[in-house]
Amino acid sequence: MPSELATGADRLPLPSTLTAAQQFAMDKVASGPRGELIAPFVPLLRAPELMTRLQLVGEYLRFGAGLSPHLTELVILIVARRWDQDYEWGHHVPLARAAGLGEDVITAIRDGGTITGPDDVQAVWRMVSELEYRHGVSDSTFEAAIEAVGDDGVVEVIATVGYYTTLAMTMNAARTPVPDDYERLPAR
Q1: C-alpha distances out from residue 63 to 14, 101, 160, 183, Å
Q2: What's the CATH superfamily of 69-174?
């Protein structure tokens, strides 16, 4: 992201006082698997009903979907790189490693390298790339993705792209701060 867009103060920090609806939404996130209100949801708290519904989609995609965790993390990292979103990258790189996503794959995503990794990773990565850059998916790519993750997995991949794109755009526009200890993306 160009520096003039990325620099500056957090535009939508946690409000100093919360409305009842905001407090309810914050409590809803904290009572789920995340355990607390984390950065992507802070700017969304301005629209508490939207935040609640949106975070439930994310909760399903991260903690309830059938897609293998290494593939979920793959999709998240691809989206984070596409949007130059340091918070998502820094939050999910350790999760991707823990889920077994290869360091060669992580490095290739970070550096804009060639699609690499096992067949399932390549199939999902290719599908996500075509969606993002061609705004559609070729028959051969779609068939490879179906073979790798099944019909339901393909739908979950597509939904994961959309969900994390929404979070990335929101945090980029809000200039959501990134913790100092997070791994960051190199500038392009």
Answers
A1: 25, 17, 12, 23
A2: AhpD-like (1.20.1290.10)
